[in-house]
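Batch job 17 of 40 flagged for manual review because the log was empty.
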Amino acid sequence: MSDSSFRRRRAMSALLAVLFTWSLLASFALLGPLLGTSQTVFVSFLAVTAWLLATRSCCGDQRRAQSSPLLLMGLFTGFASYPAWIVTIGALGLALGLEPVGAAAPGSGGLLFWMACVLLAPVFEEVLYRERLLTALGRTFGSCLAIPVTSALFAISHLEPWRVLGTALVGLMLGTAMRASSSLALCIGLHMGLNLAGLTCGVPPVRLALGPSYAAVMGLVGVVAAIVLARWTRSPSALEAGVDRAGAVAA
């Protein structure tokens, strides 16, 4: 099998995984009247997360970049940058003619809903869209096409117009961060931080939030710093230095 044929098969496999995930979530949605909204969301997200993690494979470079510091940096950066995202999404949505929607109070939803949105959704969506789909499409079509296509598919699944717009913009950022850092941990952390901020601060944010200008600066600085750290931890010189330090300690 030629290399180009193999890449096309990988891309098709990733697209089929996206369709299967959508079908699985839609099937679980039928249980809503029986289980309740929060329970249905949690069970469906748990099932999808378990399936994607069980079928997951990634290269050694990606594993080296998936560290707790990057996850925590992403979590902090995502949370801190949330107000800037809300202002950007709101301005663009109104410019596109979307009807204004009511505010969402902070702290809404039960424990299962929070676990589903903050813990499960970032894991399975980043594994599916950034690690599996973006990697496969990037190798076949290049990042310039793969990032917007992946972001569009990520956004469409959210259905509601404002959510589609917001997730499309965030998806572009996450896709760029993934291609620049090769760190799934960073993307999961950013995603977790944004989701946590939305539930904690409200939509629009009314508590525990920076001003939009400060949030934008914190977000940019945090993402750049995390990408630099991810690339450094994957560099041969950093790995060799780590081996040398370990040998010195053992001696």
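Reviewer: the log was empty due to a logging misconfiguration, but the result itself is present. The chain has one domain: 3-250. Unflagging and moving on to job 18.
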